[in-house]
Design a protein that fits this description.
472 residues; alpha/beta; 6-stranded antiparallel beta sheet; 15 helices
Length: 472
């Protein structure tokens, strides 16, 4: 049996990696592995989600667990419900930013936190061995449908983030990608006091408005709309609302780790503590944390939440696109993140560009290359050696350190760096990097991505698709 859990839960093409049979068995396995008596289930707007959700719920009930079904909700609402209803586990049906052909599952513990690596391994072992016991007729679980939870979730965010004073009323454009947050984030931002415009805010699991991944190259064609509306900020979600991308109409796409750096700035001013970030974060976060006397911890992508269990003083955890604020909850929440940034603008009385003047800005690139599955690993092995040995020689760079937390990240003495890793959810190789100089960064990425494409062609990959962008 293949490893199921990737970087963030289980994801894949419906009827290929993600099947109705898997949904049923996952419900059985999660319930048994976590010894759950009550499981909360919900899902996004994908066309296959209602089917998969009903099968997950059936699996949970088959082995004796009651199921709280909260129906279609944004992803962050599900772990919030796990804590509210005192559930032993939660299962959310989603493929996040993947295309509409895909679906998957995110599993949460009773803490409202995504499973740790060791918890995932336990679930996979139960699933592999099918070591659950089906309950008899008088012991099957009950199905309890609960409506209206989104309204309570919204009120909870508003009670926590209500501005203490109003110095400015920002104009906000929010693109919810026809996803699960379409009727939620706009309502919250308006209630906080912003003037709100919406894009792609009708729920549709086909994602007709745009690709659900809020990448720079996907969102940049929409910037003229933001400029015509004269908004202060352009927010964009993925399909389920855990991710948030931010654009300042005149400055362009705001690098995601600069967003983390900004929020770390405010959190560390409140109290010193640990900031947990993923391996693909750059120098902006490092600079801010060091300047304010915090401690920076680096983790694998998709596992920043484990830092909350290891360190008692975490003030913020996150990876580019995803924020965890422990004072709100141990889950990733793009809706809360949009609300928090809007609150800062209202209370500080400044536009978005003024907020971000507090944190440094370095040229950064984020690319990925889609390959045939059987080819990817060979190309990846070639590239790790290339980045560690050939790239420094070609560009006359001295290696400062090599990190193997997740993939291979090579940090150079001139503060530039490059990370190469395999996607945990798609047959892609991802490239991330940064430099003090945009031209230097462009040359490095042209070289490495070009080498990857050349190697893939040599090996015989039928599929070679490059996507991504460099942001000065």
């Amino acid at each position: 049996m293949r490893k199921l859990f990737g970087t963030a839960g289980i994801r894949g093409r419906y009827l290929r990696e993600v099947t109705p049979e898997l949904a049923l068995e996952l419900g059985c396995a999660v319930t048994s592995a976590l010894k759950a008596r009550r499981v909360c289930v919900g899902g996004d707007a994908r066309l296959t989600t209602p089917l998969l959700k009903s099968l997950v719920a059936s699996g949970c009930m088959m082995v004796g667990s009651d199921v709280i079904d909260v129906d279609l909700v944004p992803m962050p609402t599900l772990p919030w419900c796990v804590r509210r209803f005192k559930c032993d586990a939660g299962i959310y049906i989603t493929a996040s930013h993947n295309p509409p052909t895909d679906n998957g599952f995110k599993v949460f513990s009773s803490r409202g936190m995504e499973l740790t690596l060791s918890e995932e391994e336990v679930v996979e072992e139960v699933l592999r061995s099918k070591s659950w016991k089906i309950a008899d007729w008088d012991s099957v679980g009950r199905l309890i449908r609960v409506g209206g939870v989104v309204n309570d979730y919204v009120e909870d965010i508003l009670s926590k983030l209500a501005p203490t004073h109003v110095k400015y009323r920002p104009k906000v454009l929010i693109d919810t990608a026809n996803g699960a947050a379409s009727q939620v984030t706009p309502q919250i931002l308006k209630s906080l006091g912003a003037d709100v415009y919406t894009l792609n805010a009708n729920i549709d699991g086909r994602f007709p408005g745009r690709v659900p991944e809020p990448r720079p190259d996907v969102l940049e064609p929409l910037i003229p709309i933001a400029k015509n509306l004269n908004v202060d900020v352009f927010f964009a979600h993925d399909g389920d609302g855990d991710r948030l991308a931010i654009i300042e109409p005149n400055l362009g796409f705001i690098k995601q780790d600069r967003v983390l750096a900004l929020l770390a700035y405010y959190k560390l001013r409140e109290r010193r503590g640990t900031v947990v970030v993923s391996i693909d974060c750059g120098n902006a976060v490092k600079d801010v944390v060091e300047k304010l006397g915090g401690k920076l911890v680096i983790t694998k992508l998709g596992k920043t939440h484990e830092g909350l269990l290891k360190y008692s003083d975490v003030v913020l955890a996150g990876e580019p696109w995803k924020l965890i604020d422990p004072s709100w909850g141990p889950w990733v929440d793009g809706i809360y993140q949009a609300a928090l940034i809007t609150k800062l603008m209202i209370e500080e009385g400044v536009k978005l560009r003024d907020l971000f003047s507090k944190v440094p800005n370095y040229p950064q690139a984020r690319y990925s290359i889609l390959l045939d599955k059987e080819i990817r690993d060979k190309v990846y092995e070639y590239l790790t050696d290339y980045v560690m040995n050939e790239l420094p020689r070609k560009f006359n760079k001295k290696v400062y350190e090599i990190l193997r937390v997740d993939g291979i990240r090579v940090n150079f003495e001139d503060r530039s760096w490059m990370l190469v890793r395999k996607s945990g959810t798609e047959p892609k190789i991802r490239f991330y990097g940064e430099s003090l100089n945009a031209a230097d960064l462009k040359n490095m990425f042209n070289d490495v991505v070009g080498s990857a494409v050349k190697k893939a062609k040599e090996i015989g990959s039928k599929v070679i698709e490059v996507e991504g962008s460099l942001i000065p």
